[in-house]
Design goal:
Low-confidence stretches: 254-273
Number of helices: 7
Strand content: 5-15%
Largest sheet: 7 strands, parallel
Mean pLDDT: 87
Shape: globular
Radius of gyration: 17 Å
Length: about 270
Amino acid sequence: MRPWLTVDSDDLRHLPKFQGHPRRSKPIVQERLSSTLQLGMQRFSQWLDTHNFPVTMFVIADQLEDAIFSIWLKEQIKKHPHLTIGCHGFSHRSWSAWKPDPALFSSQLELASMKLRDFAGQAWRPYFRAPAGYVASWMAPVIAEHGYTIDSSVNQSWLVNNKFGKGENWKKVLQSLENEGLEVRPWLCRFGLPTCGPALTLPVLRTIARATWKKLDRPVQAKDAEVTVYWHILDHARKQGHWLPPIPVDLWQTKTIDSRQESKQPVSRRLVP
């Protein structure tokens, strides 16, 4: 399975229990950038230093308002030509958990797209991932209208059937996205169970996830991928900053062409936990 490696930039304040959900969210007072995310950023950057495989970071546009984050991200784009930037929304609103509002979604997506595109420059890619994986069919035309070519919002596990729109199912959501001309990159599942994001650290699920990820082949760009995997920058802060994505050792023994140009960085086995 040739994977597309993707990572989300969410801070603690963006979690649905704190932001963006009509029933679950209870806002917290938090500094613009948590110490946990800052540790994750540091460790993620070090991880990027060890290879030159394509990685896409889905960034929440409101994070660019934080000087520490924006300076750090600009440095990563400059230092790592294999890093590209996609859109994870303007904020972390769980869109499909609310009543359909194409006008609001469109205005927020336009603002987020403009900010991220202008910031990332050549690293920008028209790839979209709905915040927290809350995506519905009514969102598909809006995503396409704003020039996106790839959507990576869908987690086809029955454990998250609450995330698609009312009266829908994952098949209908996928079909709606494809009907708008979008290439759809669902997240990797196994036995109908999620293997990405929180599944990498939750009991039982993490065992299945790690075993599944160990079967991955060398990473490729989004257009060539057979499967999509993702984790969070926050994950790199786990285990006192020693957490790494469970990629097979032999995956990193040769170099490949990155997503923007050929990199001359040496490959290290430090990628593997």
